[in-house]
Amino acid sequence: MPKAFTRAVSPKLSDCELTHLDRVPIDAARAKAQHSAYEQALSDAGYEVIRLPDLPEHPDGVFVEDTALLLDGRAIILNPGVASRAAETSSTASGLADHFPLHRLPAGHVDGGDVLRIGTTLYVGLSTRTDAEGIGALRRLAGTFGFNVVTAELAECLHLKTGATLAGADDQGTPLLLHNPKAVDAAQFAGVRPVAVDPEEPAAGNCVRLFDRIILPAGNPKAAEKLRRLGLHVVEVDVSELQKAEAGVTCMSLIAD
Questions:
Q1: Domain encompassing residue 146
Q2: Are the beta carbons of 254 and 4 closer than 8 angstroms?
């Protein structure tokens, strides 16, 4: 059975790191309920949901995607780009150690939210959280596993996958790149069919691709309809409280197909 690794919402979520949003009150109980519904959507898709160790003192701990990269049966423990999140990686490594051989990013900073895999190419966003040194270190490490690393340029977004994610494939087998044109230029990505989201739905550029469906944040009806017309099974999940912490639906899980 494929696995999805998650972590519980910290009661201190309101103290999370913010880059693009103004700080507003976050209802941790409501965020926890939405996170549970998100985990249920993963389970409903046929994934075994495995909780990584709780980190109640770490506001951003629920955003596990930034701490590791899963590649074909391997786990690379990353180095997030804000100091407050550095200690999260040891907990992630502990939780993944029984499932994968572990490797560690040797230098620089990379947030997993900046890494978009398309085939054997890893597009890595140069962002406020991921630096050139980290991209270079990942290029050397992932290269030993047969992956090519390409730097991607970002505009108005926190992470690369905030504004661009894979939504599956069309009837010709071409990967569908769901993207927010204001955040990410789709011309950077080879061999994809771009699917632009409506300017009024910028959060729709971030989706979780599972075997036979995608998880899309609720509140993006135009994107949901467009994807359904392309033949995709769309599951909409309300993550509105978590979005106040700059969350996307990818950032709350590590998917191992």
A1: 3-256
A2: yes
